[in-house]
Amino acid sequence: MKVTVFQFEGTPEELDASHVLKRLTDQHRGPVSVATEDSPDGGTLPVRIPGVADEGQETVRQLLGRSPAPGLFIRFLEETTRWDNVGVYGIKRKNALPDAPLDYSRYLRLRRQGSQFGGFAYVYAEYSTINLRLNYNQQQLDELGIKSARTLTTGHREYRVSVDLTDEASLADALQLAELAYNAT
What we know:
alpha+beta; 6 helices; 6 strands; 33% helix; single chain; 185 residues
């Protein structure tokens, strides 16, 4: 018995438009089964992770493979990287050599280029968690109508609001808060 397996990534439109894929499948004889890996949040990954430098693409893709909501995380990046002068960066480790590449394995920093405040958000691809540069308490979040954010009691005092992306409402809350943090930087 001979088994041949092909795995193709892309949108349905991209796959339909591929001449190479058409030639491959036209030659196939026998039964065909198609497996999809769509997550409940529509989490098929795009060819490029929005805003992430080439050196971090594969690392972030692997982290998103373990994420509970990769599609929501991608949508968060798609939206925030459309804002003026927003960059997505890995982290320069404390003991890194001067020419060492940035580290994309834990979290990413979203930063308004030219800002003296650092990042307006630190985002964790593996967990689909967004930590924002907002020193808000729960009452302030309630006044904004934010239901899915929580306040943090540890870490840097300027980054006290966190949102776990779990559904459309949490994505909307994260984007609303990210815009507040972006405007403050």
